Structure formats: C-alpha cells, structure tokens
Give the backbone structure.
Amino acid sequence: MTCFAGTNGRTLYRDSDRALLGGVCAGIARYLGFNLKVTRIITVIAFFCAMPLVIIGYLAAVFLIPSSSSPGYDAALDTESRREARRKAELREEILRAKPTVDEVRKRYATLDERLARIEKYVTSSRYELDQEFRNLK
C-alpha cells in the first residue's frame, strides 16, 4: 500500500464553486480530503515563507489543473461521495418535514393542559381520598 492509497479513483480539479483565487486550494483540499480552511492557511504561511516559489507554483496550478466546471467533471466525482451527499440531503429534508408546526405544538400543549387540569381536579376531590382509602384496605 502506498501513501496515496486514499486517493484512488479521484482526479485533481480546481474547485470553482468554492474558489477565492482560482480554486486551487479548494481542489487540493477536496482531492486530499483536507479541511479547506487549513489548506488555505498552509498556503498563506507558505506564501510568506517562500513568496516567489509559491506564486509561480500557484499560477502554474491555475493554468495546468483543469477547472471543476470543465466537461467530464461529474464523471470524475466519486459516486460514493455523491450518494452520501444525496443521502444527507434526503435526511435533512426528512428532519425538516418531521418538525412540528406551531399550531401542532399549541394543540399538543392545550391537550396536555386539559389533562393536567383533570388530574388536578381528581387529586383535589373527595373521590381521590376515597379511592386512596380503598387502596389502603387491600
């Protein structure tokens, strides 16, 4: 197993959807599975440490790495990650549908309030005391 075993079947593209300056950092973060913010911070630190090399490398990457909007990008995406994203979106929609509306919550609390009033009425009545005495006889 090589150190690049985690990147099998993936292709490096610039991510134009999350791009700030060409989408190189976003594409590298997606390709390697890194956090995008961490990748950008590392790039800025590298820029301050070796400015000319980073500028040349970044510009070369902008011109040499194809953009994600280029033809064939969808085919290059991992089908498993697309399935995962679709499943997460369906789960979010299901959660949103499962949330009760304000009217449903009001009705539920109204019925709970009615039940509580009936229980309170029963506990404070003489019938409750009589039932308690019968239970104590057993």
User: Anything to note?
Assistant: Helices lie at 24-32, 36-49, 51-64, 73-76, 79-98, 102-123, 126-137. The longest helix spans residues 102-123. Residues 9-97 form one domain. The chain has two domains: 9-97, 100-138.
